[in-house]
């Protein structure tokens, strides 16, 4: 596959729902050819068909799955969105299995994907956008595992930016409370617990973060946006 020089290619991990899906749609509307990458390949295929993109089955915790990304001929933009949290346990009740999953997905998964696509990104003088969280700068009760993972992602992002500047631009976008499947996944499908996170509060929508991703990706190569924190107005007093 030889892409026209004018065509821009983006890979979005966790692209089957939430912020990832919204980012795929926003980027496609802005002229990008988007690889919609996630474990739920059927959903990726449906989204890709709607936006003129390409579906990829991808599990960021599986090195063999990630290695398939090396076959992509051109990548100008990587959005590392795949991630998540498990439970809301105090440290004294922490599950080592949940912590391992959070690190493997949020930190090691981002490393695996970025490393696999590094040659294409270097060749394109491309852009990497890592989706962090305000949890990476502001710890909260019950969040120690997720806080630790997102703090780790933040450190990795900043180091990578310094290592690769100016050849690869690196940005971190840190959302606050966004109403997606995040809490439903965190609480293992418990709809009541998930709904309680958002009830009676202002909540961002996935499209709000997608617009920030689209904007950063639209900037000229001379511009590197370091970090963006985006939260609903009632969370901004934190």
Automatic annotation (TrEMBL):
Q: What is this protein called?
A: Serine 3-dehydrogenase
Top-level EC class: oxidoreductase
- Name its species: Corynebacterium glaucum
Q: What is its EC number?
A: 1.1.1.276
Kindly give the Gene3D superfamilies that the UniProt entry links to this protein: NAD(P)-binding Rossmann-like Domain (3.40.50.720)
Family membership: Belongs to the short-chain dehydrogenases/reductases (SDR) family.
Keywords, ordered alphabetically: Oxidoreductase
- Could you name the domain of life of the organism this protein comes from? Bacteria
A single MF term (Gene Ontology)? serine 3-dehydrogenase activity
């Amino acid at each position: 596959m030889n892409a026209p020089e004018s065509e821009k290619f983006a890979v979005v991990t966790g692209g089957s729902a939430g912020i990832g899906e919204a980012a795929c749609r926003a980027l496609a509307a802005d002229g990008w050819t988007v690889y919609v990458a996630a474990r739920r390949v059927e959903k990726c295929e449906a989204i890709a068909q709607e936006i003129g993109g390409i579906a990829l089955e991808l599990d960021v915790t599986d090195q063999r799955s990630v290695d398939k990304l090396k076959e992509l001929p051109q990548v100008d933009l990587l959005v590392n969105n795949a991630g998540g949290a498990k439970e809301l346990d105090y440290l004294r009740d922490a599950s080592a299995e949940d912590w391992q999953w959070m690190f493997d997905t949020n930190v090691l998964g981002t490393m695996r994907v970025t490393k696999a696509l590094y040659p294409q990104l270097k060749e394109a003088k491309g852009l990497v956008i890592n989706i962090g969280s305000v949890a990476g700068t502001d710890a909260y009760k019950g969040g120690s595992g997720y806080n630790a993972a997102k703090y780790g992602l933040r450190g990795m992002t900043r180091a990578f930016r310094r290592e690769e500047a100016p050849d690869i631009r690196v940005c971190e976008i840190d959302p606050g409370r966004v109403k997606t499947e995040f809490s439903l996944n965190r609480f293992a499908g418990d709809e009541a617990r998930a709904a309680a996170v958002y009830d009676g509060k202002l909540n961002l929508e996935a499209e709000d973060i997608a617009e920030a991703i689209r904007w950063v990706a639209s900037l000229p190569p001379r511009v590197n946006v370091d970090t963006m924190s985006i939260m609903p107005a009632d969370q901004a007093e934190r």
